[in-house]
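Q: I'm building a small set of examples for a reading group on sequence design. Run inverse folding on the following structure and report the sequence directly after it, with nothing in between.
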């Protein structure tokens, strides 16, 4: 375990050291970005502006790209980007009102309407890959620690038998849990007499860093499994706890005008307004996590109005932006959509309808099962999935769906039914192997 903690700390320190190279010298970084074709500048400039809201993984990615950009001779860079610059000319970019400081809907709209859009995407990917490769040539490979995605379909969800599920992965196996599956989350988080829990391990390793452990809950159960001393070492988000902020944010989002240009201005204002009176106390002092929530709610994916959509999208965005070592995602019940309301246009159904809320167990179970699989599909987009164990627990059935990385399968045979204690011990051993 000591060797694992050293490797994990080495990885974290490498991220922080790389990120620190950019933060003090943003002006020189912006000058580097000016060497790039116009359409590549907005995202990079926006990330520099929002540097403190980026997770260490994102900061490291930007730092790495800028190191690669700086390492290229001007003649090499010009040769590399010339096809993209020529394509921008054919698209008419010099005549556009194209923002270089941030990604905007207007930018995206102009690019997407161009007949050369597919060619532009390919050229941008080629240039990014080449510049990142130049940075990789001088970099030391980072350690690759074990990772976990633990998905909980809570007891109130009447999910069908696992053997009828659409297969998630060819390595998947079904486990019958010998005991109360509802205990597994607490055992994993809090540990057992002979083994510390995940939260305690991360509290020992994290040194104030919360990007490695995410607790994402449709209700408000997961955070209660953390001791007070452990709460700052986790990024904990609860759809239920966020209700006052959600209601206010949804009301303001529904004032967004139809004009794309005006929408960009309104969305920028929403990102920068003072939301302090509506944030829950659980997010006090967590500016980066608050910024993450705002970005999540502005992405138009249903996370504002459906608890299970919130869980799936928050987990997927955490995977993309933070590459955490552990995600615990807990799906729950949602209310039935009310008739004659505008749920498709993100209206607050509690305010627009006087009908009482009614739980929808069957619909919630269908949502949760589909969205749980989407979390794993999202993880497959990134190379870290090769070190990731995914365990989906169906509390109502006392069963679990397990995808273990190659060479990290559990020690028991296919017909064995592990207890919650045995599953928890194996998970913790996987994370510290």
């Amino acid at each position: 375990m000591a060797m694992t903690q050293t490797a994990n700390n080495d990885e974290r320190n490498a991220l922080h050291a790389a990120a620190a190279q950019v933060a003090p010298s943003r002006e020189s970084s912006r000058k580097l970005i000016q060497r790039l074709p116009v359409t590549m500048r907005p995202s990079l400039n926006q990330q520099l502006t929002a540097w403190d809201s980026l997770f260490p993984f994102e900061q490291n990615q930007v730092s790495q790209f800028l190191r690669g950009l700086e390492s290229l001779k001007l003649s090499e860079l010009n040769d590399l980007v010339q096809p993209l610059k020529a394509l921008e000319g054919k698209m008419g970019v010099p005549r556009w009102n194209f923002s270089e400081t941030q990604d905007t809907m207007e930018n995206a709209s102009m690019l997407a309407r161009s007949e050369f859009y597919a060619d532009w995407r390919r050229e941008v990917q080629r240039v990014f890959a080449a510049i990142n490769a130049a940075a990789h040539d001088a970099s030391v490979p980072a350690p690759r620690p074990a990772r976990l995605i633990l998905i909980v379909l809570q007891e109130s969800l009447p999910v069908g038998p696992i053997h009828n599920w659409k297969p998630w992965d060819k390595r998947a196996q079904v486990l019958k849990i010998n005991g109360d599956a509802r205990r597994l989350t607490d055992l994993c988080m809090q540990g057992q007499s002979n083994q510390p829990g995940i939260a305690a391990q991360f509290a020992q390793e994290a040194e104030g860093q919360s990007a490695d452990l995410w607790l994402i809950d449709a209700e408000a159960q997961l955070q209660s499994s953390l001791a007070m001393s452990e709460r700052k070492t986790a990024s904990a988000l609860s759809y239920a706890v966020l209700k006052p902020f959600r209601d206010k944010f949804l009301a303001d989002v529904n004032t967004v005008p139809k004009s794309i240009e005006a929408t960009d201005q309104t969305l920028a204002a929403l990102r920068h307004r003072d939301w302090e009176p509506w944030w829950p106390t659980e997010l006090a002092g967590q500016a980066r996590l608050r910024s993450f929530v705002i970005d999540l709610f502005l992405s138009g994916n249903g996370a504002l109005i459906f608890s299970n959509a919130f869980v799936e999208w928050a987990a997927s965005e955490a995977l993309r932006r933070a590459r955490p070592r552990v995600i615990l995602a807990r799906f729950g019940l949602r209310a039935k959509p009310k008739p004659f309301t505008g749920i498709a246009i993100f209206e607050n159904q509690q305010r627009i309808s006087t009908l009482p809320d009614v739980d929808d167990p069957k619909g919630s179970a269908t949502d949760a099962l589909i969205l749980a699989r989407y979390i794993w599909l999202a993880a497959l987009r990134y190379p870290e999935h090769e070190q990731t164990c995914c365990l989906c627990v169906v509390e109502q059935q006392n069963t679990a769906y397990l995808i273990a990385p190659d060479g990290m399968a559990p020690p028991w045979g296919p017909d064995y039914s592990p207890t919650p204690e045995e599953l928890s011990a194996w998970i913790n051993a996987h994370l510290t192997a």
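The radius of gyration is 23 Å.
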